[in-house]
Amino acid sequence: MIYTVTMNPCLDYVVELEQVRLGRTNRAKGTYIRAGGKGINVSLMLNRLNVENRATGFVAGFTGDEITAQLSGEGIAAEFLTVSGLSRINVKLWAEEETEINGTGPMVAGSDVRRLFRVLEKAEKQDIIVLSGSIPATLPMNIYGEIACWAEQKRIPLAVDATGELLRDCLPYHPFLIKPNLQELEELFGQPLKSDEEVLRAADELRREGAQNVLVSMGGGGALLAAEDAVYRAQAPQGKVIGTVGAGDSMVAGFLSEFSKKPDLGKALSMAVAAGSATAFSPGLGCRSLVMRLAAEIQPVQVTRKS
C-alpha cells in the first residue's frame, strides 16, 4: 500500500484563454475544476497505473467536500481529516504562459496532526508514505521532519516532494526518495546548475545529507536519478506540452508504481519520466495507455560519477 499525504489540498480552477489581458474582461475558451494538491495528484496517477493507494491529509468546508467527492468518484480510498475553515481554490491560467494563483489553506491545529498520525499508524514496513507539497500556515515548519523521524523509527520507506526547509528537515531521517525539480535544486544551493555534472553534484550532496535516492525532474530535459551505487539519466520523449501542472507528481507516482513491483532503478526512472511526460502532454493527468506507450520509448543510460 502507498499512503499519500496532502496537508494542503485544493480545488484547481483551470481556465484556458488565448491570452491574459490585465485590467480587461477575458473570455475563457474552456474551464474545469479538479481536485488538486501534490499528494492527491500522486494518488490519482497511482490509481491510473493500477497501484493500490490511500490518500490522507486535511480538508475543510464545501471545497473539502468536493475534493473528497472527486476522489471517491475516481475510486480512490481516501481518509481525509476534516478541520476548520475552507480548503483552498487555486486558479490556473493557461494562455501564452502558465500562470498560477494559489489560495490559502484551512486552519489545522495540533490535535489534527495527532489525528493524522493515527491514520499513518496503519502503514506497515512493506508500505510507502509520500509527503508532497506545501503545508497550511498554522502548522509548524518542522512537521515533515517529525513525520520523517517517525517513519524512520517505524522503518517505513518515505518519499518526499517538497521545497526548502520542508525537504531539508527530512534528510537526517534518510527518506527513500526525494524529488526536487531543477529550479528547486538551484534554490536549495543558491546557484544555477547548467550541466548534468553540476546537477549530479548537487543531488549527491543531498544524498550525503541523508536522502537515499534523489530524482531530479528537468522538464523537457528529462530526469536524473542519483542513487548510492548508480546514476541514471533519461531524456524526455517528444510531444506537445499542454500543461505542466501535476507532471512532477506524476513522476513520483510513476517511479513508485514501478519500484514497488520490482526494485529496478532504471525501469523506475523510465516509468517516472513516462508518467510525467504523459501528464505534460495531456489537458489533465496522463492516462495509463499513454504512460505505457511512452515508457516503452524511454531508455535510461547509466552515468559514471566523476571523481
UniProtKB/TrEMBL annotation:
<comment type="similarity">
    <text>Belongs to the carbohydrate kinase PfkB family. LacC subfamily.</text>
</comment>
<dbReference type="GO" id="GO:0008662">
    <property type="term" value="F:1-phosphofructokinase activity"/>
</dbReference>
<dbReference type="InterPro" id="IPR017583">
    <property type="entry name" value="Tagatose/fructose_Pkinase"/>
</dbReference>
<dbReference type="InterPro" id="IPR029056">
    <property type="entry name" value="Ribokinase-like"/>
</dbReference>
<keyword id="KW-0418">Kinase</keyword>
<dbReference type="InterPro" id="IPR022463">
    <property type="entry name" value="1-PFruKinase"/>
</dbReference>
<dbReference type="GO" id="GO:0016052">
    <property type="term" value="P:carbohydrate catabolic process"/>
</dbReference>
<feature type="domain" description="Carbohydrate kinase PfkB">
    <location>
        <begin position="6"/>
        <end position="285"/>
    </location>
</feature>
<dbReference type="GO" id="GO:0005829">
    <property type="term" value="C:cytosol"/>
</dbReference>
<comment type="similarity">
    <text>Belongs to the carbohydrate kinase pfkB family.</text>
</comment>
<keyword id="KW-0067">ATP-binding</keyword>
<dbReference type="GO" id="GO:0005988">
    <property type="term" value="P:lactose metabolic process"/>
</dbReference>
<keyword id="KW-0808">Transferase</keyword>
<keyword id="KW-0423">Lactose metabolism</keyword>
<keyword id="KW-0547">Nucleotide-binding</keyword>
<dbReference type="GO" id="GO:0009024">
    <property type="term" value="F:tagatose-6-phosphate kinase activity"/>
</dbReference>
<protein>
    <recommendedName>
        <fullName>Tagatose-6-phosphate kinase</fullName>
        <ecNumber>2.7.1.144</ecNumber>
    </recommendedName>
</protein>
<comment type="pathway">
    <text>Carbohydrate metabolism; D-tagatose 6-phosphate degradation; D-glyceraldehyde 3-phosphate and glycerone phosphate from D-tagatose 6-phosphate: step 1/2.</text>
</comment>
<dbReference type="Pfam" id="PF00294">
    <property type="entry name" value="PfkB"/>
</dbReference>
<dbReference type="InterPro" id="IPR011611">
    <property type="entry name" value="PfkB_dom"/>
</dbReference>
<dbReference type="GO" id="GO:0044281">
    <property type="term" value="P:small molecule metabolic process"/>
</dbReference>
<dbReference type="GO" id="GO:0005524">
    <property type="term" value="F:ATP binding"/>
</dbReference>
